[in-house]
């Protein structure tokens, strides 16, 4: 494991890699602010002719929403084809891997619904759906027989009634159970760390149904399979750059990529250096750096 502190220390990585996969939150931006050095680092890699992709577990935004965010924050020369969200990868999985033809029961937000509908599926209504406590209410919950999959994403209106509906749908073993991602924690503005909503919701449904979701996002392989199906690349000459050991670094290890941990998000320098010797091999990055500033620092 090598620390990258300046541009000269990046040379080994630059010479051995052609494809760069970046996480977004905590690596290239924090909430609505670019992180120091991120724009410059990506411009530098573009000038060197590297393939660049952005691979985020965030599912509340559609792919095009995330693409527009790059432009709004000052990132240039990035095409929508360079942007991969777990929402897009999930819809891709439903269409191209499962080859579903029926409806989808979604616990999620508008961005996730957009991706599912763009893939050609009918998505049941999202938004508030709560219990009133009236007698017989649960017994009268409508279950659509055409639903072929339950998709769990971040849902700002997650409720007991939605949990009951998911439970009823998933009693049918032919109904697919898909989670977009399962991050335990995520970074937000000012360096604050909060619980990951999707992972928490998946655990609740796993517990009640006795089933285990097929998770699409990092650290699971359906995400990289989605990217490779559209833009094939040599994994041994690719690097995953992220801030989360349990999603980004584990993803890299499982996929056969090199890995670079950036200490501007979930993982902090002090705790990482104090505890990395106790980590399993699949959570130890090949490289680490305080920030992307190191690429352009002399």
UniProtKB/TrEMBL annotation:
Which residues hold substrate? 218
Query: GO molecular-function annotation terms?
Result: metal ion binding; phosphatase activity
The alphabetized UniProt keywords are: Hydrolase, Magnesium, Metal-binding
Annotated active site residues, numbered on this chain, are 23 (nucleophile), 25 (nucleophile)
InterPro entries reported in the protein's UniProt record: HAD-like_sf (IPR036412), HAD-SF_hydro_IIA (IPR006357), HAD_sf (IPR023214), PGP_euk (IPR006349)
A Pfam family assignment: Hydrolase_like
Q: Which family does it belong to?
A: Belongs to the HAD-like hydrolase superfamily.
Query: Know the name of this protein?
Result: Phosphoglycolate phosphatase
